[in-house]
Design goal:
There is one protein chain. The protein is globular. Helix content is about 5%, strand content about 35%. It contains one helix and eleven strands; from the N terminus they run H-E-E-E-E-E-E-E-E-E-E-E. A hairpin with a 6-residue loop joins strand 10 and strand 11. The longest helix is centred in the N-terminal third of the chain and has 12 residues. Strands 1-2-3-4 form a four-stranded antiparallel sheet, with no helix packed on it. Strands 5-6-7-8 form a four-stranded antiparallel sheet, with no helix packed on it.
């Protein structure tokens, strides 16, 4: 069997020439790990504070999921245990170093605010006691606080949740 390996830079260069595009992130080369853009709408982009990561929501696989793109390595980052087939994940926000992702999930059958820890590969539910709807989470640089909108009191208000955050080694 014959196998041809083409460097990403060559694929990127050819994509720019063939599409007439002068911005390398606007094309989507077909590489196994995926890219920044796809044929599905990519929504709710959020940068990490250090500018390395970009999180976004998309329905690439016919299901609403969150993706994390490493801008330095130009590839998608695996997020084990974040996206689930029985729920949708949406509206991501990132901590400064990209360790924590705050997002909206329908895991419990209604919109909830969750925070995913990339080191522990698990999510924490923050809106368990909130009645009403929630949306638009944002997270502090160190991941210690999450703010979001809630309709719990009959109008949209802001809620702030403080979290216990472990210091990275």
């Amino acid at each position: 069997m014959f196998s041809l390996r083409v460097p990403f830079s060559v694929i990127l260069f050819l994509g720019i020439i063939l599409t007439g595009c002068n911005h390398p992130l606007l094309i989507t080369p077909q590489i196994p790990t995926g890219g920044l853009n796809s044929k599905s709408p990519e929504e709710y982009p959020a940068y990490s504070g250090d500018g390395r990561y970009l999180a976004f929501a998309s329905e690439r696989l016919g299901h609403r999921d969150i993706y994390l793109f490493d801008l330095e390595q130009r590839r998608l980052v695996s997020l084990p245990n974040l996206n689930r087939r029985d729920s949708s994940q949406d509206q991501p926000a990132l901590s400064a170093d990209g360790r924590y992702l705050a997002y909206v999930s329908t895991e419990r059958g209604k919109p909830d605010i969750m925070v995913y820890d990339r080191l522990k590969q698990r999510s924490e539910l923050l809106s368990a006691n909130v009645r009403g709807s929630v949306r638009q989470p944002t997270i502090t640089g160190d991941g210690s606080k999450v703010a979001f909108q809630t309709s719990q009191l009959g109008e949209w208000n802001i809620a702030i949740v403080e979290r216990n955050v472990e210091v990275s080694p």
